[in-house]
Design a protein that fits this description.
It is a single chain. This protein has one domain (3-123): Electron Transport, Fmn-binding Protein, Chain A (Pnp Oxidase, Chain A, Roll), CATH 2.30.110. Strands 1-2-3-6-5-4 form a six-stranded antiparallel beta barrel. The protein contains four helices and seven strands; from the N terminus they run αβββαββααββ. It has helices at residues 3-12, 50-57, 84-92, 100-104, and strands spanning 15-22, 25-37, 40-46, 60-67, 70-81, 111-124, 136-137. The protein is α+β, with helices and mostly antiparallel strands. The radius of gyration is 15 Å and the shape is globular. Helix content is 23%, strand content 46%.
Length: 139
């Protein structure tokens, strides 16, 4: 797959798993992608969640997307984004209506935005199960 095909697939299938570390213990949880392109793979979380503390302590992470029999693992470094325009864009986006409750309850200040940078992807299918993995530079 090319990087363009990977970005297309993950943007069309925004649910993913994020792996972080807490000390020597791996932690994995489901997340929701905001968008992905050559500038980075963007998602958000809350500063009160364990995942936020884990990322701040160790920004190296891996994402796993799956769709149509293809698994895409993306490895890189998470960078926190401080951009009020992007923050408002996320709150206003039709796919983020659930965030309105954050505003209604006064916890919208806990929204934290991250972008995976310096990342590469490897793909997996049943057909390529035993073939060597070839990393593809994404962002």
């Amino acid at each position: 797959m090319t990087s363009a095909e990977i970005f297309k697939l993950i943007n069309e299938n925004p649910a993913f798993y994020l792996a972080t570390a807490e000390g020597d213990q791996p932690r994995v949880r489901g997340m929701l992608l905001y968008r992905a392109d050559e500038r980075g793979i963007i998602f958000h979380t809350s500063s009160v969640k364990d995942v936020f503390a884990q990322i701040k302590a160790n920004p190296k992470a891996e994402m796993c997307f799956s769709a149509g029999g293809v698994q895409i693992r993306v490895t890189g470094v998470l960078e926190q984004i401080h951009d009020d325009g992007l923050r408002e864009e996320i709150f206003a986006h039709p796919s983020r209506k659930f965030l309105q409750a954050w505003k209604d309850n006064g916890i919208d200040g806990t929204l934290q935005i991250f972008a995976m940078k310096n990342c590469t992807a490897v793909t997996w299918t049943m057909e390529t199960n035993f073939e060597p993995k070839t990393p593809i530079k994404l962002c």
